Amino acid sequence: MKVLILGAGAVGGYVGARLVATGADVVFLVRGRRLTEVADRGLTIESPLGNFSGPVRALGAVPDGFDPEVVILTCKSPALGEAMRAIAPGVKPGTRILPLLNGLAHLDVLARTFPDAPILGGLVHGALALQEDGVIAHLTPFFSMIFGAVSRTEDPVAGELARALAAVHVDARESPDIHQDMWNKFVFLTTLAGMTCLMRASIGTIVAADG
């Protein structure tokens, strides 16, 4: 399987490293200091589900002749416009685009921009942190990745991706109703965000308080 991943931060680096471990042909689109770091030193993952350390292909642009079956976006929502311009050379008719962004509005934006590319909605659960030394630390005993076609039909490429990830300790599954799964996470996040803003404290501090 050929996979293009925009970003090699916490989520992109973790998912990409797991795919590299399956033997997939993975290219990371990266910029700035992180590009130099990953191109020179590869990726290192420290995880309770198994560590990874090794070279990967990190480039500043989609290489000529690389036609991925799946493009995974791991940017933040404000960077979506720039991300779409970066992946455009690698998106052909039939290329699956899988954004791992919170919220749902980006699905319509991607569908309008790439009308010939099937869009997969997606989300992840699990705490990851990109450390100062470039190591990606996995902070929870689990990492799950749920994705599926926005058309609510089974997608053979999504199924292949889920099986590949499941073989390398990722709790991956293809969802029959990815919109519902994405709304579930969005409601969960907004509830936590409202709580932390109202109380001006982290979840740990709030939970530890007597009240």
What labels describe this entry?
single chain; 211 residues; alpha/beta; 5-stranded parallel beta sheet; 4-stranded mixed beta sheet; 7 helices; 12 strands; globular
Helix content: 25-40%
Which spans have pLDDT < 50 for at least 5 consecutive residues?
none
Shape: globular
Terminal CA distance reads 51 Å
Sheet having the most strands: 5 strands, parallel
Total helical elements: 7
Structural class: alpha/beta
Q: If strands are numbered along the chain, what order do they take across the biggest sheet?
A: 5-2-1-6-7
Overall pLDDT, averaged?
95
The tally of beta strands, per DSSP, is 12
Q: Nearest-angstrom radius of gyration? A: 17 Å
| Helix and strand pattern | EHEHEEEEHEHEEEEHEHH
* Approximate strand percentage: 15-25%
Describe the structure.
- It is a single chain.
- With 211 residues, the chain is an alpha/beta fold.
- It is 37% helix and 24% strand.
- The protein contains 7 helices and 12 strands.
- The strands form 3 sheets. It has a 5-stranded parallel β-sheet, sandwiched between helices.
- The termini are far apart.
What is this entry, summarized?
By secondary structure, the protein is α/β, with parallel strands linked by helices. The chain contains seven helices and twelve strands.
